[in-house]
Amino acid sequence: MAFDLDRFDPFDDRFKPQPRGCLDALRIALWALRWAFDLHTYHPAPGGLPGWVFCKRGAMTIGWVGLVGGDAPSYGAVAGPLLAAAFGATPEAMAASPLLGRLEDRLNPAPTADSPAAP
Question: What is the mean pLDDT of the segment spanning 56-76?
Answer without folding.
Answer: 89
